[in-house]
Each structure stands twice: as C-alpha cells, then as structure tokens.
Amino acid sequence: MFRELYPHSSNKSLHSLNLLLLVAFSLTYLVGCTPANNSSLYGTALNNHDGSRFSLLDENAVEVTDQTYMGQVHLITFLFTNCTSLCPLVTASIKQSLERSEDTRNTPVLIISVDPKGDTIESRNAFKNRWGLSSNWRYLNGNKEELNAIWKSFYLNPQEAAIESLNSQMNRKYDIIHSSPVYIVDDEGRPAVVHTNPIDPDHLHEDLIRISKR
Fold first, then answer.
1. How far is residue 32 from each of residues 24, 40, 46, 176, 210, measured CA to CA in Å?
2. Domain range summary for the chain, segments of one domain joined by +
3. What's the rounded mean pLDDT across residues 55-72?
4. Cis? peptide before 108, omega within 30° of 0
5. Class for domain 14-212, per CATH?
6. For the CA atoms of the chain, what is the radius of gyration?
7. Per its UniProt record, what SUPFAM superfamilies does this chain match (predicted)?
8. In this model, does residue 12 exceed pLDDT 80?
9. What does the pLDDT read at residue 33?
10. What is the DSSP letter of 82?
11. In degrees rounded to 5, what are phi and psi of residue 198?
12. pLDDT averaged over the chain?
C-alpha cells in the first residue's frame, strides 16, 4: 500500500509533519471560510468565496487563467513536486475519485504550486509522468508574488522549513510546510466545496457529481 501511494519516492519520510499540516490548514480555514449549511454534501460547502483571479503557466509553458475553465466544474489543489508526505496521498485520492465514473474521468484538475522555486517545468512534467496524469491535469506555477495572492485567497500560508540532512549537518535541504485542500469549483468559477485530509475518493466523487448537476 505504501509503495502504491508513493511511486518512485525516496526513502525520506515526512510523516511527522502530517498532523502539523492538518492543524495549520484547519486553523486557517476556520478563520477564513464561511461554510454553508448544506447537508447533502460530504465536503464543506462554501459561501461568499470568489476564488482568485490568476494567470499562471502550466508544465508546457501554456497560460492558464481563472477564466480558462469557466463553464466547467473543475478541481483546484495545492502541491509541490518534491513533497513526500501529503501530496502523494492527495494526488492518489483525486485520481481515484475521477476514475469512479466516465462522468468525472476528464474533469479538469489544476494543481497550483506552493514551491515556485522548486517546481520547474522539468520537475512538473516528471511529477505528471510519475503519476500517469492525463492532459486534464495541469500543474501551474508563477512567481511568488502572483502565487501569494492565490494562496491567500484559498487560505494557505506555505512556509519553507529547514530540514537537516542525515548525511551532514552542513548540508541542509528544505521542504514546504503546507496543506493540500481540494476545492470543487463550480461552472461559474466559484469555489463551491472544499475537501480536507484525509480525502475520501468516494465522497469527493459524489460531491463532484452533485456540483456538476446544479
């Protein structure tokens, strides 16, 4: 099971960060989002959330904006290519969710980087290839100023955390402390529902169907 969720991953383990990530997102989400009372949804329905205007480049250097998928229900999540903790779990959950039916198989998925420096075109393409992600998945990046506005709109606050190398105290690497919510965006471009970890593929699929039928 571990190998299925972490294809070709290194042995470095960041599982100890999981609780911190979940708590960080929960606190930020509670002060930033106004949940709607909608018992028919598995995720948290959102009121008064207009998302964010953006213009970013995907892994093929093609521009994607907040208007690109207007008229289509789509997903937005936040990852980085060197992540070995939450990102593989979130990617696997979304992929499994979309594969539940033909109605959702080609749903656009926008991955927005939380590591603008590390998520190069090469690393983003390698990430997609490693996970076997089709063309409906697009991995977006931009400069930190552009991304900061998007992160703020979606209640994220990624931070760089120094991680001491096991090989040498003088050799330090960094990882990104972040959360990986999955937003279902309706056909008018508004984030309608948010799912947080642990993400249930069946529940995400059901909510995607419900929002698509509105």
1. 12, 22, 11, 21, 24
2. 14-212
3. 98
4. no
5. alpha beta
6. 17
7. Thioredoxin-like
8. no
9. 46
10. T
11. -75, 135
12. 80
